[in-house]
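Field guide to reading this record: the first block holds the primary sequence, the second block holds the structure written as discrete tokens, and the final block holds curator observations. Each block starts with its own label. This record concerns Protein translocase subunit SecA, catalogued under organism Caldibacillus debilis.

BLOCK 1 — SEQUENCE
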Amino acid sequence: MAGILTKLFDLNKRELKRLEKIADQIDALSGEMKRLPDSALKAKTDEFKNRLAKGETLDDLLVEAYAVVREASRRVLGLYPFKVQLMGAVVLHEGNIAEMKTGEGKTLTSTMPVYLNALTGEGVHVVTVNDYLAKRDATEMGKIYEFLGLSVGLNLPEMSREEKQKAYQADVTYGTNNEFGFDYLRDNMVLYKEHMVQRPLNYAIIDEVDSILIDEARTPLIISGSAKKSNELYIQANAFVRTLKKDVDFTLDEKTKTVQLTEEGINKAERAFGIDNLFDINHVTLNHHINQALRANYIMQRDVDYVVQDGEIIIVDPFTGRLMKGRRYSDGLHQAIEAKEGVPIQNESMTLATITFQNYFRMYKKLAGMTGTAKTEEEEFRNIYNMNVVVIPTNKPVIREDRPDLIYATMEGKFKAVVEDIARRHAKGQPVLVGTVAIETSELLSKMLTKRGIKHNVLNAKNHAREAEIIAQAGQKGAVTIATNMAGRGTDIKLGEGVKELGGLAVIGTERHESRRIDNQLRGRSGRQGDPGVTQFYLSLEDELMRRFGSDSIKGMMQRFGMDDSQPIQSKMVSKAVESAQKRVEGNNFDARKQLLQYDDVIRQQREIIYKQRYEVITSDNLRDIIEEMILTVIKRHVQDFANENADPEDWNLEGLVDYVSANLLPENDVTVDDLKGKEPEEMVRFMFDKVKMRYDEKEQQLGPEKMREFEKVITLRAVDSKWMDHIDAMDQLRQGIHLRAYGQIDPLREYQQEGFQMFESMIEAIEEDVAKYIMKAEIVSNLKREEVAKGQAVIPKSDGEKPKQKPIRKTVHIGRNDPCFCGSGKKYKHCHGKTV
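BLOCK 2 — STRUCTURE
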């Protein structure tokens, strides 16, 4: 183990030597840059762009470009990057992580790689943890870029689409991780290409990279909405289908389990719902609800297909008769059965789009990050993001004193000691920063200090701008500040007059965090840029981390020595035990994030396919070829099902095929049983497809080509969006329930991958069916316009990424390969939802 550590240490040493050489080359140009007048310095930007156009690379320009930014920074801000900052800047350009201690000037360091990479014109995103820091850095650092002729944008949640587009068109865009991620999701929900705001994701530098890519890695960004499918409509559709007569208003084929409205039934529906045309494009949702209500009432049988138990519909396994608790039929069929049985209708999918930070940031061509604490998570950065961590030395040696932990038997004893320590230091004027893990601890300490009459400030990551002000003052004489972990991060604590002589800033930790990194962040608040300082952690055997990991042996030891609550123990052994406990927790958390990523990769691949196809739809001039291909696939699927070439023609169900075609593709009597008799399945496909193309031509003549093209987009987008929305929800529920399969040598991840793939295939088929049906059958009576399937809004999720547990779902039910598919398509299970099993 020691050997590996030495090796890693040597690697970092070797890396620093290489970086130092580059920094020396940049430094060597400082005299030349100083001599340039402003106009010549500004002209360098165009010169670099021309050199790039002629074939030079960013690496070729790095030394000179960094020297230019360094000089511009001196002229504009009066700040001149140190050599260590130049080294950090090289690390960032190479797509790695620069670990630079608090107060070493990370923000200024980032200006060099940002400028260099912005020269390509493809855009650079600088990602911060909150809006306050984004505004501050865009304003401050923006002066350097603007001086050098680059544009700067700021991306904030409250901005309009036009403002966001302008921000993203800039060479450099500042914003938060949440906002960049939400914009990506919203861009993939737009109905018109002109409404997209982002450009392709090129290069991002993440400030506080450990916070975003590790602490928040499991946090899903969710755009949720109220789906327009209301529960009311299920109840109305259910009441309507109960008034219908078999063979008059609808046809039912028991064998293939298909049910369809006749012309008479369609007329009845139009009268009942007070509409002119059930197939008008505006009534797609109603049509869907009626079809599902028909299936619920006339195909699905109580106590055969499902049972009603405690006000819930529970699916019955058709072979074993077992109740499949927690599973739901998809596409609204479950809700239709709930309406039929008069039990509460559970809402349909509310998630319109979702992505985790892990997967959003992995889409950038190049990613870099900076933070004061990343080395402890190096393995995770390397494995998941392919980024190395390089520890950059401080500009001046750190002289801060980090004292061993003090451990008390009880929390009460610990807090008394903390308050005593604060009072003692406060009396002599030394500033104190107290770090807490939870808001309750902050409030408890605040009460105790108030009782002692000690004036103090409390911060708990609620108001970022105000916190930055308070944190900036935390180094003044006599200041006492209580802060939860993240509060005021990104703001420097500068020491006030006379504070150095008092020993600098004292940092007191009231509990160890389960991650060493967070403890190191708190420590790093003191002793910046060679300032003096002291840090001390107070622990008790009742702290959560100590309770979880072996506090009993320490308790026994304290009792043996007859130590009471006011006497702490301070030992290296105990501090080591705490650290190894933290390592164990970190390891567990890493494994959890890695596992989540493996599951998340399944939906990531599917999301990329859908978003790519969706983009093709909104940017395409003419979708007719694609749609005809979909219709042909649908016809082939149904011909194979009703008239399978491997079956005896005597067993073919040509009536069923004609019913399907009449209900979904062509006007009644356009295709009859006599037309199909004597034909081979392949000839049937050709015959029907030719009819479809003729009908398509007629529609195009009626509407005119321009309207027809828009009609194609409206239909396709609606089908893709509604099915994808249902699919996200189904995948989420499958994910929640998959761990129940971890028995009998079954690997839940493999099960999830296989079932997720089958569900995706089924969704693609459902999209094709919908597009075929509505292109051929829907009519445009009123105005034609693209509409969102549901209104969405961004949800800032809980930071631990845990969503409320949902019931597990599976899209399919166990059915024999030759049985009719449960979905009511009329096809055999093996040719429908069971095709990929």
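BLOCK 3 — OBSERVATIONS
The domain at 602-777 is CATH 1.10.3060.10 (Helical scaffold and wing domains of SecA).
Residues 572-619 form the longest helix (48 residues).
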